[in-house]
Amino acid sequence: MDAKNFIAKRVAKYFEPGDVVNLGIGIPTLSAQYAAETVLFHGENGIIGVGDLAKGLLFVESFCNASGEEIVPAVGASICSSATSFGIVRGGRLAATVLGALEVSEFGDLANWATPKRAFGMGGAMDLVVGAKKVIVAMEHCTKDGLPKIRKECTFPYTGLRCVNHIVTELCVFDVGEKGLLLRELAPGKTIEDVAAKTDAPFEVADDLGIIGA
Amino acid sequence: MDAKNFIAKRVAKYFEPGDVVNLGIGIPTLSAQYAAETVLFHGENGIIGVGDLAKGLLFVESFCNASGEEIVPAVGASICSSATSFGIVRGGRLAATVLGALEVSEFGDLANWATPKRAFGMGGAMDLVVGAKKVIVAMEHCTKDGLPKIRKECTFPYTGLRCVNHIVTELCVFDVGEKGLLLRELAPGKTIEDVAAKTDAPFEVADDLGIIGA
Amino acid sequence: MKSKLCSREQIINLFKDGQSIAIGGFARCGIPHNLIQCVLDSGVRHLTLICNDTGEGGDGIGRLIHSRQVDKVIVSHIGTNPETVKLFQAGEIEVELNPQGTLAERIRCGGMGLGGVLTKTGLGTIVQNRRQTITVDGQTYILEPALKADVSLTRARRTDPIGNLAYHGTCQNFNPLVVTNGSVSIVEADFHLELNELTIDEIMTPGVFVDMILEQGALYGC
Amino acid sequence: MKSKLCSREQIINLFKDGQSIAIGGFARCGIPHNLIQCVLDSGVRHLTLICNDTGEGGDGIGRLIHSRQVDKVIVSHIGTNPETVKLFQAGEIEVELNPQGTLAERIRCGGMGLGGVLTKTGLGTIVQNRRQTITVDGQTYILEPALKADVSLTRARRTDPIGNLAYHGTCQNFNPLVVTNGSVSIVEADFHLELNELTIDEIMTPGVFVDMILEQGALYGC
């Protein structure tokens, strides 16, 4: 299993049967395949019950996910307007939202939509991090250049302040709370020092530190 | 024709084909029978196209007017939530609202929902007078005790300020504007003096003063 | 999927003294009679009701007024229920009167996770006196804060086991707003359908807003 | 009833330089392609568009970007259209970015005759910097003002001659909001039905919100 699927599989453990969950593009979307069958996926475009990618006669404009890809509605799916779709989000009806991140601060501030040079739109991300019951960041631990994405403070434009509850990377799982970061799980074969070397913020270590996938 | 129907018939002349109009209880509701067939009547409970009172198998809970009476939806009728129903109202989509009044001031302030002793709810009246394109008061010119209802100022709790556009009574038709009252039409056989004697506010007389029903 | 069907007993046990309860319906139309019976049977008191009106006497929502379980009502009028008027005049029930369109938006705000809306309705009236006014682009509005109930009681025409709902006729009224509002959202439906029996375009309320569905049984007094 | 069907020419003549136009659709889904063609054919310029996004290149709403008829867009993102990004970076188009849920509510407010809504979305971000914040019951919210367009362009699945509308699948998205918004509300529909052919419970948008319906013809590029 590659790093992305490793992360996605761990993320899916946060979902309970019957949950309605929103998944961002990239690694978050991968987590759908590891979720229990009774989890429904919410698309910002107003669908509750995003199913598989469509083929053949089911490949129609009228059923798309929030990325504009043709999909098949899941069993039990429903559709609503964009206003109601975000009413679900802000109204606290999403059990979780899973997003990628450019940076996360030790207190759960999130920057995931813009850099100083590229600010082409926040889409639904700002609503999602305000409204969902659990905000889960699923990302590779460092940037492509090897720089830490978990930091004392974000430098890029914020998506939301103190909104992240969990961070899942190929190295570890952090809980994020009022006291900052708590290391909950390590990837198999990794050490606390491995995490510390790639994390630009202090963190506590859980008494019952676990192993991802164990 | 009695006074109430005389007033209602004159009110219906304000409606254009294709208009959507809200009618209050009492005299306003009577005006429906004098309206063009293509006028649709809006009920606060979320129906656009209130038809006749229902009988027989059509007498069901599922189709009521805003007074809770069973009705038959008109041809072309639609139904929406209470939020959308008042979106129609505030959004300026009603060509007219016709209401009764306890008092109307010379500048179009309206008091129609409460007295100092009885204040049991404004229902939708405050929304209607703010949102409808034309606010028409249809009422008997004086109270049962013979006191003027058109006054320099209202003494009862307001429904809205400077909101009334037209007043239709068994005596006359007033337009109401920024300059105050303008007498537009007299009932057959009535004089300007008859109106003045029963109106507790100054008014101008239109150059082309007409006769109701002529 | 997990079925959201619940027994009368499960629902009755959920009510507590002092709760706020939003209830769908308008006059005699679209009232959740069976869920109101559950509130009656629970015997809880000191309730605050959020609803358009208090019915017409001892029927519908009026049953909770007659049973004296209610301390306060947030409504657009009480004029159709002499019992509410009597208790109000005796100072035994608190009544907060709202313009009907404002009440609808306040209930919607609570459900949609919004803090309030700006409206011109009520400017210059007693409604303005109790509220903040806000100026936007030179226009003055009343700021009407969201209403949020502990529990909401909704009546739908049709439901599936996960609470995807369709309404019928003017029984819609406040129901699609109320269903989004309660911290616990409870639904009763005239007809119980199988999963996927409602076509996707018929669904007016996604089941994600619904927590519990009263299991099917004889309908009370419809 | 009076039919609201209009010819392409009647609709084209309605557009003017400098207008604001709200457009339904989301990505490639539920776009009013034929009405966009009318805007193109009108040749009007200096438009402000209010819509979720500007499409994916030279298709859908993107056609109006490529044609350089637009001075400003009020959207939730432009990232899917390289042309919009290029014009934005060159300072040739103004872009106002809104959180998607906030954009939906602002469009709804304009249609529903409300002045704005209070939301927590965007607190602590650049979105807050441009807005007033309001405290209600100890909670801080951003006040997001209503958006109101001169014209709105909506795509529905089915219409009758007076504009009672039904949507299909995720082509719904912003359309039921946009249709309420424009001072002139124009609709195109995939299917034109007779009066009363839509059953009353199928209607999602009452025709009272619709001013003009594009007469039926070959659909552009769907």
Class from helix and strand fractions of chain A: alpha/beta
| Average pLDDT taken over every residue of chain C | 96
Helix content of chain A: 10-25%
**Number of helical segments with 4 or more residues of chain A:** 5
Distance between the termini of chain A: 15 Å
Measured as a percent range, the helix fraction of chain C is: 10-25%
Question: What structural category arises from helix and sheet content of chain C?
Answer: alpha/beta
Question: What is the H-and-E element order of chain A?
Answer: HEHEEEHEEEHEEEEEHE
- What composes the largest sheet of chain A? 10 strands, mixed
Low-confidence stretches of chain A: none
Biggest sheet details of chain C: 9 strands, mixed
Q: Taking Cα atoms only, what radius of gyration of chain C do you get, to the nearest Å? A: 17 Å
CATH topology of the domain at 3-31 and 92-211 in chain A: Glutaconate Coenzyme A-transferase
What is the percentage of strand-forming residues of chain A?
Answer: 25-35%
> Using CB atoms under 8 Å apart, which protein chain pair has the greatest interface?
A-D, 41 and 47 residues
* CATH-assigned homologous superfamily of the domain at 16-104 and 147-190 in chain C: Glutaconate Coenzyme A-transferase
CATH C-level name of the domain at 3-31 and 92-211 in chain A:
Alpha Beta
